[in-house]
Automatic annotation (TrEMBL):
Residues 164-228 form the Protein NO VEIN C-terminal domain. This is Protein NO VEIN C-terminal domain-containing protein. InterPro entries: NOV_C. It comes from the Bacteria. It comes from Paeniglutamicibacter gangotriensis Lz1y.
């Protein structure tokens, strides 16, 4: 729940006072100093309860109203932490795409601008907090989505080739791929990138994954599109030559790239897994893998629009 503006102002005042005094001393100042009389006792009480609920404040029943944590922080640092807590609780829709939408403090959304105004923070603070929280949330969410996509792909492949699929990333993430599939005397290696984003496709590729792909003819980079319940609704293959074409280049041995972010669209993707040896009946029973999409599901704008062409593909064997 996002606190009302009066409670937010009260919380900022508590933080200023608790940065140099105990809780009882701060409470006495609030009650006796006319500067604080523009807010009600209920607003101050609600604000203090909220601060007690935030672990980073160090305010617990065992501190006797004194927080060494707060007293070691600057006034701006305390308020930036409060702004971060607000952002985490609200989790606005734009936060997931803030790396694209927010390039500077001039791009900050209205809610962040209002909160930092109430807290007395400069625009640079809001931008810094957005970057920090979006990165933190993105790491957690990315891991959850990534695992869901890998598991979904394994289940889809297992339905066609029982016992042939190995989710290697469950045990070891150092192979340079996530899933292996032993199909008709070939062992395929699939690096899987999963996303719930409808409008754009962004994924990270480590240098180890990239170099594994270049050296392995049976390595494929696959993209799995997930719906809001993290169910697979589209599958595509990434053009390996595009990975090489757009990869960073080291300019000196003193610094080398370790991870790259790719922003790809339908021009670098092919729907479905056309390289696998499908039978004619599979185009009906395994539509998601052969044609790349289900009959129904969310629309991913990065997914190739010619998914229907897969039905006309010849029955393929291993390379």
């Amino acid at each position: 729940m996002i606190p009302a503006e009066g409670v937010l102002i009260a919380a900022a005042r508590w933080l200023d006072l608790l940065g140099r005094s105990t809780e009882s001393q701060a409470s006495m100042i609030i009650r006796s100093n006319s500067r604080y009389a523009d807010l009600t006792p209920t607003q101050y009480s609600t604000a203090l309860d909220w601060l007690h609920s935030l672990p980073w404040t160090g305010l617990t029943v065992n501190t006797l109203g004194r927080s060494d944590t707060l007293q070691k922080m600057t006034s701006q640092g305390r308020k930036e932490c409060l702004l971060a807590s607000l952002l985490e609780v609200s989790n606005p829709p734009w936060l997931e795409n803030s790396d694209v939408l927010v390039h500077s403090s001039d791009d900050l959304p209205q809610d962040i601008n209002r909160w930092q105004e109430l807290l007395g923070l400069p625009p640079s603070s809001g931008f810094r907090v957005v970057r920090r929280i979006s990165g933190k949330i993105d790491l957690v969410r990315r891991a959850q989505i990534g695992n869901a996509g890998e598991v979904a792909l394994c289940m889809l492949l297992e339905a066609k080739w029982p016992g042939a699929i190995n989710h290697v990333a469950e045990r070891d993430d150092g192979f340079g791929y996530d899933v292996s599939a032993s199909i008709q005397n070939c062992e395929w290696h699939f690096e899987v990138k999963s996303t719930t984003r409808r409008g754009r496709l962004s994924f990270f590729l480590s240098r180890h994954e990239f170099e594994t792909g270049l050296a392995d003819n049976y390595w494929k980079l696959l993209v799995v599109g997930l719906d809001d319940e993290l169910r697979a609704t589209c599958v595509a293959e990434v053009d390996k030559s595009a990975l090489k074409k757009f990869a960073p280049a080291d300019r000196t041995t003193a610094a080398i790239w370790a991870t790259a972010r790719y922003d790809f669209g339908e021009g670098q993707l092919s729907p479905g897994l056309s390289f696998l040896p499908w039978e004619q009946a599979d185009f009906r029973t395994h539509r998601l893998l052969t044609q790349g999409t289900r009959d129904q599901g969310p629309n991913f704008s990065w997914m190739p629009t010619d998914a229907g062409r897969a039905a006309a593909l010849p029955i393929l064997g291993p390379p």
